[in-house]
Structure formats: structure tokens, C-alpha cells
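Q: I have 79 residues here and want to know how they pack in 3D. Can you give me a structure?
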Amino acid sequence: MKLPKFLLADNSEFPEDLFVVHTEYPRFILNVEEEEVEWLDDLEGDDEETMADEATKVVEAAFKWCDEELAKYDEEDEE
């Protein structure tokens, strides 16, 4: 099965929170409201600084994707 790179998720146990699930390496769940990341994969690499930079980039991409996705929902509501 082919999965999208990012998924939006919510949970009734955390009604105020919105999550983004990143399905590719390095997999993680981002709590958008709390700005917390739970890594599902160990970050591997020779250069710790490079891995940290890559992790930062993918988390920033998740926030950007979430903002764009939520804007689409807002546009649908306006129509």
C-alpha cells in the first residue's frame, strides 16, 4: 500500500490536539498544538549535526504541510 508522506490525525483522548504523522523515514508523530515530536525511528547517520539538520527540516515541512492542509479545509468551508 502506498501511503501519503503526511497524515492528519486526532484522538478523542486529546480533543484539543492535532497530530501530523510522518510515514517516511524518519517516521514521527508531531503534536501541532504542543509543538512536540515523538520519533518512531532511531535517527541514524555518521554526522550527528547533519541528522539534526535533516530532522529539523522534515519537522518544519510537517508544520508547513499542516498549515496548507488546514487552509484547504477553510477554503472548503467558505464555499
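Q: Anything worth noting?
A: The chain is about 40% helix and 20% strand. The mean pLDDT is 92.
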